[in-house]
């Protein structure tokens, strides 16, 4: 298939692009490479995919990989309606996997406009591209943050999600509503995936795994919010990628007959891990005890997340199987290889 992966220089988008090309699909990756976090990490991911930094920096230029013949990259912003529309017309995608978004719960308190531009306007432009170019299936990233103040554990997609506590969460809930409307009106399949705390090699520097590891290695204290009384459904990147790719490759032709064009799933580890246990695994893997700065709950955060993934298991035989100890070690091995912290210490 020919597949558009947006957010291809991002954490999940990079891994999904690698997996799809390894399976023989033709992938066009799209990313605006914004500076929400270190762009050098984004360029390094693209380098693994065979895209030179200089080429990746050129706006709107479709560049073919030097390492993976079935991967091409274009630097483009989803909010640029005209350029995105032209890309859809030229390439005639079979499937679109929209993983691009302005990420981060806490940053949405500082820069709300970025979330509207990327997550609302950008997503509308993706839907319009699918509508006008006969895309069979749109797979898109939602988020566990849509559950907001939901107290029932584990979270299920049938739960009411009417009380988001961040603009990021509200933007993701909006995506789900918009996708439902387009599936209903225009007859193409949409599948939303509510991601739960993804971690692993090439991860985002603003997430706990990255922040904790960097601080501990530097001898700095780590910020432990709500005095550590938090739990998260930490999910290793390979388990996430496997689930996303299974959905992308699935035949959706029967969904219209079953009146199931719109689908929504949780995608997580199917268990909840205490934050303090997560920190302990990082300490064990590094062989260093963390200095902890206990802080109150942050605005926009929730105390506990836990995904019920029964529907994903039933429909796609999705089986997350990476233990937290193994996943943490793989991340730290990558971090040391990529950043060489021992050189900084010496």
UniProtKB/TrEMBL annotation:
Pfam families in the cross-refs: Epimerase (PF01370)
Residues of the NAD-dependent epimerase/dehydratase domain: 3-268
Domain of life: Bacteria
SUPFAM superfamilies, per database record: NAD(P)-binding Rossmann-fold domains
Keyword Membrane (UniProt): no
Gene3D superfamilies: NAD(P)-binding Rossmann-like Domain
Keywords: NAD
Protein name: NAD-dependent epimerase
Gene source species: [Muricauda] lutisoli
Lineage of producing organism: Bacteria, Pseudomonadati, Bacteroidota, Flavobacteriia, Flavobacteriales
């Amino acid at each position: 298939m020919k597949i558009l992966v947006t957010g291809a220089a991002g954490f999940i988008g990079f891994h999904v692009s690698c997996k799809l090309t390894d399976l023989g699909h033709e992938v066009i990756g799209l990313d605006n490479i914004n500076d929400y976090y270190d762009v050098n990490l984004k360029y390094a991911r693209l380098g693994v995919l065979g895209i030179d930094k200089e080429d990746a920096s050129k706006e709107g230029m479709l560049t073919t990989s030097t390492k993976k013949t079935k991967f091409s990259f274009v630097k483009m912003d989803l909010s640029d309606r005209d350029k995105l529309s032209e890309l859809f017309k030229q390439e005639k995608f079979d499937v679109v996997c929209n993983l691009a978004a302005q990420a981060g719960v806490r940053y949405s308190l500082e820069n709300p406009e970025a979330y509207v531009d990327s997550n609302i306007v950008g997503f509308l432009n993706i839907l319009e591209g699918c509508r006008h170019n006969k895309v069979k299936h749109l797979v898109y990233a939602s988020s566990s943050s849509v559950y907001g103040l939901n107290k029932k554990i584990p979270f299920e997609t049938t739960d009411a999600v009417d009380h988001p506590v961040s603009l990021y969460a509200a933007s993701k809930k909006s995506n789900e509503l918009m996708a439902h409307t387009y599936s209903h009106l225009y007859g193409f399949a949409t599948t939303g995936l509510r991601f739960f705390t993804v971690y692993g090699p090439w991860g985002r520097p603003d997430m706990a795994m990255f922040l904790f590891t960097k601080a501990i290695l530097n001898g700095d204290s780590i910020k432990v919010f709500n005095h550590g009384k938090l739990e998260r459904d930490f999910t290793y990147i390979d388990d996430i990628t496997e689930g996303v790719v299974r959905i992308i490759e699935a035949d959706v032709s029967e969904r219209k007959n079953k009146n199931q064009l719109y689908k929504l799933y949780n995608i997580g580890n199917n268990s909840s891990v205490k934050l303090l246990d997560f920190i302990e695994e990082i300490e064990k893997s590094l062989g260093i005890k963390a200095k902890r700065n206990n802080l109150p709950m942050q605005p926009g955060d929730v105390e506990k997340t836990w995904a019920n993934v029964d529907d994903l298991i039933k429909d796609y035989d999705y089986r997350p199987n990476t233990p937290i100890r193994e996943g943490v070690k793989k991340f730290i091995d990558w971090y040391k290889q990529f950043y060489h912290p021992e050189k900084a210490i010496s």
